[in-house]
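ingest -> validate -> predict -> emit
validate: passed (alphabet ok, no gaps, 156 aa)
predict: started
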Amino acid sequence: MVEKDQFINFEVNKVCYGARILQVDEIVPLVELNPIPKAPEIIEGVMNLRGMVIPVVDLRKQFSEEAGINTVETRILIANMSDKKCGFIVDRVIDIQTFASDNISDPVLDSEATHFISGIAKTESNEVVQLIEFAKLLDPQELSELTQLNPESHDA
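emit:
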C-alpha cells in the first residue's frame, strides 16, 4: 500500500514549495508586525495571535536575502518549531494537495544550504513542488534566538 500525505503548497519568490499539513497549525493573513530591536534579519518581528506572541520569519529573505512585496495574497503560516510556534511569511498559499510517497523524489541537492528540503513532488499538471521541513529551516543559532523570545509564555 502506498503511503499518502497532504501538503500545503505555497509560493515564495515565484517558486512553489510544500509542507506537510501536520506541520502547519493555521494560515493567517499578513498583519502588522512589531519589530524586535537587534533581531536576526530574517525575523520580521512578532505578532499577537489570540494572546500568544509569535515570532515571524520572512521566508522570502530566508531563501533569497531580499524582502518580497506584500500583496493581498501574502500569508503567514503558523508552524511548530521545537515546541514553539513560529510564523513564516509566504507570497501566497496555492492549495492543499495529496502526494503519494512513490511520487516524491529525493532532493536534487543534498547540501548544508538546502538541508531543509526533504523531497521533490510533481503535481498532476507537472509542476515541481519542493517539499520543506519547517523545523530544519533555521540554523541552530537562529532557532536558539527564536526560543529565547519564548513566544508561548508571554501574553500580548
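The radius of gyration is 15 Å.
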